[in-house]
Write a structure and sequence with these properties.
The protein has 364 residues and is an all-alpha fold. Helix content is 59%, strand content 3%. The strands form two sheets. Strands 1-4 form a two-stranded parallel sheet. Strands 2-3 form a two-stranded antiparallel ribbon. GO terms for molecular function: heme binding; indoleamine 2,3-dioxygenase activity; L-tryptophan 2,3-dioxygenase activity; metal ion binding.
Length: 364
């Protein structure tokens, strides 16, 4: 905890690796509750990312020392998570309220752990927390929708679809707060590297050796919004099918979620098909409500593309043209890639286009 609480300073002053190397080997048996185990995963994942990338992309550490690797792998196994920073570490477990009595808005939230990147990193994490919060009514609507199909209650299903559409639109609006709180140049040049993994990353082509765990290097993908359960669950409920390549990546990302989240997606997937129900009902209102959900989801994905273009593609071009500046040399190997390791725009466009293809034809 002492190291994690000083992480930005230790990384910026190039002292983190020295501090970690002096750390005692911690025993996970003392972590009794789920909350303690989750906290351990967050702390160890933050320290790990800082340790690997302390010297930037050109000199990543190839070996995670035993006193970090052993407890990290052990607590990861207990939780069913991989031993790397995942969306649930960076976002879902990494916020607190300043005043528990007040509303959950960005002014009343704070993060627990950080990397270099200052206010922009804080904004990036907290806007993502608010995106997850905006999805809560949508997740509840899925449950209502699945039950409505099972009970053949059209009214309840219409209500659920309406609630889902409003939630998706709220997610899109909330995502817009990125522009207010995150500086694209700092995101691109400073923050991104600490979210990067060691699979499909040219900066670490063979992976990472976890000392005392495996003599062979292991490969894990970096943090990615594709590790959030929200859109996976929406896609399964609405019956959106992705291309082989995108679908395979999304499926792999489910192994980076808490097991209960992955199980929720699979539960939605196993439920009776909403699309089939809508088509066989011959109910025009249901068809319209279904299509409005799919359209809202495609709009969210289109908006996400514009955000990613600003924070990755445009920022990359600016970083290239920028002569010596106060910002570090931007990571080259990850230039056109998302932190999860995908060729980002092709992936996002494919996912958006497949969403649009799910719109059902209106009956004449």
């Amino acid at each position: 905890m002492e190291i994690a609480n000083k992480l930005p300073h230790l990384i910026e002053s190039h002292q983190l690796r020295a501090h970690v190397n002096k750390m005692p080997l911690l025993n996970c048996e003392f972590l009794k509750s789920h909350r303690e185990q989750r906290l351990a995963h967050v702390v160890l994942s933050f320290i790990t990312m800082g340790y690997i990338w302390q010297e930037g992309e050109t000199q990543p550490e190839q070996v995670l020392p035993r006193n970090l690797a052993l407890p990290f792998v052990e607590v990861s196994r207990k939780l069913g998570l991989p031993p790397i920073l995942v969306h649930t570490d960076l976002v879902l477990t990494n916020w607190t309220t300043k005043d528990p009595e007040r509303l959950l808005d960005i002014g009343n939230l704070d993060i627990l752990f950080s990397f270099p990147g200052g206010e922009s990193l804080r904004g990036f994490i907290l806007v993502t927390v608010l995106v997850e919060k905006a999805a809560v009514p949508g997740i509840k609507a899925l449950v209502q929708g699945v039950n409505a199909i099972l009970q053949a209650s059209q009214d309840s299903l219409l209500q659920a679809l309406e609630q889902l559409r409003l939630s998706i639109q709220d997610i899109t609006r909330t995502l817009g707060q990125m522009h207010d709180y995150v500086d694209p140049d700092i995101f691109y040049a400073v923050i991104r590297i600490f979210l990067s993994g060691w699979q499909d990353n040219p900066a670490m082509p063979v992976g990472l050796i976890y000392e005392g765990v495996s003599s062979e290097p292991l490969k894990y993908s970096g943090g990615s919004a594709a590790q959030s359960t929200v859109l996976h669950a929406f896609d399964e409920f609405l019956g959106v099918r992705h291309s082989k390549e995108s679908g395979d990546f999304l499926l792999r990302m489910r192994d980076y979620m808490p097991p209960s989240h992955k199980a929720f997606i699979e539960e939605v997937q196993a439920a009776p098909s909403l699309r089939h129900h809508v088509l066989s009902s011959g109910n025009g209102q249901l068809l319209t409500a279904y299509n409005q959900c799919v359209e809202a989801l495609a709009e969210l994905r289109s908006y996400h593309i514009t955000v990613v273009t600003k924070y990755l593609v445009t920022a990359a071009a600016k970083a290239k043209s920028r002569k010596p500046s106060h910002l570090p040399e931007a990571p080259q190997a990850l230039e056109e890639r998302g932190t999860g390791g995908t060729a980002v725009l092709n992936f996002l466009k494919s996912v958006r286009n497949k969403t649009l293809e799910s719109i059902l034809p209106q009956r004449g």
